[in-house]
Every structure is written in structure tokens, then in C-alpha cells.
Amino acid sequence: MIKIIVDCFGGDHSPDANIDGSLSALAKMPDLYLILTGDEAILKAKLEGRDYDHARLEIVHAPEVIGCDEKPTDVIRLKKESSMVKGIRLLRDEDEIAGMVSVGSTGALVTAALVRIGRLKGVIRPAFCPILPTMAGGIVGICDSGANVEVTPDHLRQFAIMSSLYLENVYNVKNPRIALLNVGKEAEKGDDLRKEAYKLLETTENINFVGNMESRDLLSGNYDAVVCDGFSGNVLVKTTEGTALELLKKIKKDIFSRTIYKIGALLMKRMFAEEKEFMNYQNYGGSVLLGTSKVVVKGHGSSKAVAIEKCIEQAYRMKVSELGEKIETEILKYEHYEDA
Amino acid sequence: MIKIIVDCFGGDHSPDANIDGSLSALAKMPDLYLILTGDEAILKAKLEGRDYDHARLEIVHAPEVIGCDEKPTDVIRLKKESSMVKGIRLLRDEDEIAGMVSVGSTGALVTAALVRIGRLKGVIRPAFCPILPTMAGGIVGICDSGANVEVTPDHLRQFAIMSSLYLENVYNVKNPRIALLNVGKEAEKGDDLRKEAYKLLETTENINFVGNMESRDLLSGNYDAVVCDGFSGNVLVKTTEGTALELLKKIKKDIFSRTIYKIGALLMKRMFAEEKEFMNYQNYGGSVLLGTSKVVVKGHGSSKAVAIEKCIEQAYRMKVSELGEKIETEILKYEHYEDA
């Protein structure tokens, strides 16, 4: 049985989306066991009359609620009975629990995970690795997308090792093509950080480093994962999502400017719905935190049931593929310098 | 008469696009005088029989060609007779020449401009400021988009002052809304650089600082310019262009998957053409270099005639609005620390 905690609060559509996503995941994965954290009375009432395998779902009462402007360090200290912090504590204390999914505050989750769960052996800094769809029909991972705004070449090498193993083990990508985000494709481009990282990546065994990538090529399908500092990774992911959504919104608006466009759009209705669905990050699950000693998946705050289900599936696959053990094996081949 | 140099080589469509763009600009602006640099025989042959005001155009012979993989520092030292380096020298030496437009190597142009032209008084680092269209029908400037991969809070403040004046004087944007690119909207987000820059920007007079901007909101129309380090600015601009182009390409491909879509698309043909045109950066001119003592505009390497014409127009407006003088006045209000 694979045991995963689902933090049922903290999202825009919580707890309904969290519950619905949990029940779908349970129905699809026969060896999945879920532990839902949150206010027991609310969760019980919502589950009343629903059809699911009661032997594979339990509720852990955690009545406190985290406000969106609370400081991450205060949250783990003061909100011990919140669905997130209690979940993280359970994850730490119970050996047989594999991972946790949360759509709550990113800052609080990262802090709680780092302080309470700790890192895999040899990992200097855990990093987020969200997945985006490419226009070629595949996917691309971005590591780090915001857990570490400042990084060293050594961190970037670890991000490359971790994201390569993630793509290979969780998404079955063979020999993932790993790129370094830079301002140009040539090896000598960028600041000292990128130049140094480029050299390290070239000499790293067991990763298929294909050189620098310019951000305009992210969706080209030529790369399986791109490594970067958390600041520019955050810009990369949010700009991609933002531009796609804004452009589709503009097209939708423009359609209403002339009758002939409206007729044309009517014929293409299904196609437009598919494009929107294609760019909907909810379908690609959450941003997994690579490098923590247990699995932590952060779903978007606006996650609906389908996104929650994907997050649970990601956590499940990370566990069954023994991703953590594989990351440790590769990372420990290199000497890494701890931060001061 | 406003005198501007047009470097006629170095682009994908050079020299034809450069010549065509120059002649359109001449026809539209009666007090514009252009100096075309490049191989005289080629330029003369191309101009033969064309209809333009001969009294307002001259050619300066510069036969050397810059290869795309030449080192910027080598270029200015060894390619003195190239259209770019000779243009920059003319710009430096002739008081009555206001600026220069080039679509050649970015690195060589920045290096040549910094070494030969120098900076406005008080400016620590000149920065690129390209313009993108927003989905609300306006424009947004990004400063810096790649001239400085590493910056300090002081640099970011100068970028804010320069881009604000640029938007106001060249694009008639009243009281431009200036934002700081960050990983979240709250004031305490980001690394030390962003936190420190936020404080400086809050206390800078004569700019309308509206706080942090997340990259997903770049095209929202809520901001007139965003300041950032050149690395993440480069990611921001190229991701926006890349995503929009890839998405339009995908839509085009998907249209051919079903007959009904093809019929629909036929009715919407003009709209799709307009969307493509709307996202075509060629229509928004080049990336001006803010902070040099004379005007330097860098057009995209793939610039066609319309883009060249826009670049000339940008250079012209920067001169007539006395942007340089205005930047000096504002910048000199603050004590800035020179780089080592």
C-alpha cells in the first residue's frame, strides 16, 4: 500500500476539490491509501454518502486554518494544528507514509518541508520542478521554479541530476535532454554562474546535457528539462502561462468584434476548447519538490479536482519508482559543498 | 535637421530591408537626414532609380563585414572599416549626428557603444528597453532586457528612471506605472537585490512606482514599464515572444486536423493575420539602449523594412524629446556608486 497525505485546505477550491481529487485517485489506484488532513467534522460531512473504499482512506483532524499573509516561519511554529503543518509532522513521524500533496501557501510548505522533513543525503537545496506541455505534444520540466532565488553552479548541477531522474522515472522519458537556461545558446554566454555551471554540467555523468537553451525555445519540444536559478525559473514558468492565457483571452475577445468571426469560431469551438485545455496547467499536476527525504508535491492554489488527482498520482509515482533513492545514488557521486 | 546613422549590414535581410526602411522613414519625416554605412558600391546600386530626397541621404563607405561568431572586443579593434564600427566612430566624432540604428551583433554594438560613445552623466550602466504590446492594446517596456546580467539595487533604480522618461517622452505615456519584476507581488518577496531595490524605488521622486510585478501579468496592461536584471529580463521578453509564436503555430497546425476547422479558419483568416501581426515584435521597433550619451537603437537581427523604419523613428523621437538631457537631470538627483 502506498500511503499519501492530502492536505485538504488552503486552496481556492478547498476542501471540495481536494476531496473529489482524492476519491478519483483512490478509484484509479488500487494500492493507494490516503490520509486527509483538515477539520474532521467538515471532511466527514463532505464524504457522507460518497462511494469510495473506506478501508483506504482516513481522516486526521487538524482544525486550524492558515491565513494567506502569515509568515512561513510563524506558520510552522504557531499553526501546529493546521492541515498543512500537522500533515508534514505526520509525514516526518510515520515511516510508512510516502508523501504529501498540498495546495496551501508555497512559502509555508517549503519551510515546513525543509525544517521538518529534511533533505536526501547529499542534496544541498531541494528545488521545485513543475511540468509544462510543449507544442510538439510532449512535456518539459523547469528546475528550479522558485524554491531558491539565489543558487551556485553546484546547485544547478544537482537540479540537473534530480530533474533528469524525475523525468525518466515518473514520466518515462528516455535519456532526458537537459539544458541550462541562458541568454544565448553559445557555451560562453551569460554571467559567471552560467559559465561555471555549463562546465560542471558538461562533465556530469549520466545526464544528457545538451547545452544552453534560450527561453524562447522552452516549448519547442527540443528539451525535456531546463535548469535555472529559482528567480529566472519563476519568470520562465509564469511568463509562459501568462502569455498563453492572455493570448487566448485576446482571441476570444476579438472573435466578438465581427459576425463572420463568430460564425468561424462556432465551427472551431471544439478546437479552441482543446487549446485552452492543452495550456491548462491543472492537467499537468503540481510542482514537485525534488530533494526532500520524503515526497512533497505542491499543487497550484487554484487547483480543481483533476489537478489534485494528478498531484496524488505524481507523489505515488515518485514513491514507486524509488526516485529518492536514485537521486541519492547519483548526487553522492560528487562532492558538494554545503551552504554556510 | 535630425541626423541619424543607419548601419546597413549585419541583419538577416540586410541591406535591402535597411535601405527600404530608411527610404520610408525619409519620406515620412521631413527633417530627418540619414547616413547609411556599408559597402558604397552595393548601397549605390541598390539606391539606383529609387525615389527619395537625395539632399537628405548620404553614404559612408565601410566595406568590412562582421561575422556572427566574432568576439565583440575583437570587432571594435579589428573591424574598424565595418558598417557598425565605422558608424559608431562617426557618431562619436560628429556633434551634429544624434544617433544610430543597427541590426548587427548585439554584443558588438553594446561594447562599441560603451567603449566609443560613453554614458550620460551619472548613469552607471546603460540598459536595453524593448517594447512589447499588451493585450489591453497598449505597450509595456522591459528594462533591462540583456545588457547587464548582473545588477545592483542602484542600477535598478536608474533603469526605472530611464524607462519612465523613455515611455513618457517617446510614447506619450502619462505618469508611467513602473514595476519591479519579482517572484511575488508583496514588498518582502524575492532576494536581497529585489528587497533593497523595492525600498529605493519607493523613495525615488518623479517615478510612479506601483510595486512588484509577477511575470504572468506582463501583458495585462496594468504596467507601463518593468525593471529587472538583464538575465531575467531576457527570459521575460524571449519567453513572451516564444510562447505567443509557438501557440499561434500550434493553432495553425491544429486547424488542418479537421475540415470544419479549416472552414471556420477561412472565415477568421483576417483575424488570425491580425493576431499574428499584433504579436509581431517588428512592429514595435527595436530595443533602445538607454543611458548612452548618444542615441543607439538595436533592431532585431531578422528586422524587415518596417522594423528598421520604426527603429529610425525611435531614434528620432529620442533626440527631439531631449530624452538624454532629461535622464541626466533626474539621475543626477541621486548619489550613485560607480562599479569597481
Give the topology, please:
2 copies of one chain form a homodimer.
Chain A: E1 2-7, H1 16-28, E2 32-38, H2 40-47, E3 57-61, H3 72-78, H4 83-93, E4 97-102, H5 106-117, E5 127-129, E6 131-133, E7 139-143, H6 153-171, E8 177-181, H7 192-202, E9 208-213, E10 225-227, H8 230-255, H9 259-267, H10 269-278, E11 287-290, E12 295-298, H11 305-320, H12 323-331
Parallel strand pairs in A: 1-2, 1-4, 2-3, 4-12, 7-10, 8-9, 8-10
Antiparallel strand pairs in A: 5-11, 6-7, 11-12
Helix pairs in contact in A: 1-11, 3-5, 4-5, 6-7, 6-12
How would you describe this protein?
The structure is a homodimer of 340-residue chains. Chain A is α/β, with parallel strands linked by helices and 340 residues long. Helices cover 44% and strands 17% of the residues of chain A. The first copy, chain A, contains 12 helices and 12 strands. In chain A, the strands form 2 sheets. Chain A has a 7-stranded mixed β-sheet with strand order 3-2-1-4-12-11-5, with helices on both faces. A 5-stranded mixed β-sheet of chain A has the order 6-7-10-8-9, with helices on both faces. In chain A, α7 links the parallel β8 and β9. In chain A, α1 packs across α11 and α6 runs antiparallel to α12. The longest helix of chain A has 26 residues, at 230-255. The radius of gyration of chain A is 21 Å and the shape is globular. The two termini of chain A are 40 Å apart. The model of chain A has no long low-confidence stretch (mean pLDDT 93). At the A-B interface, α8, α9 and α10 of A face α8, α9 and α10 of B.
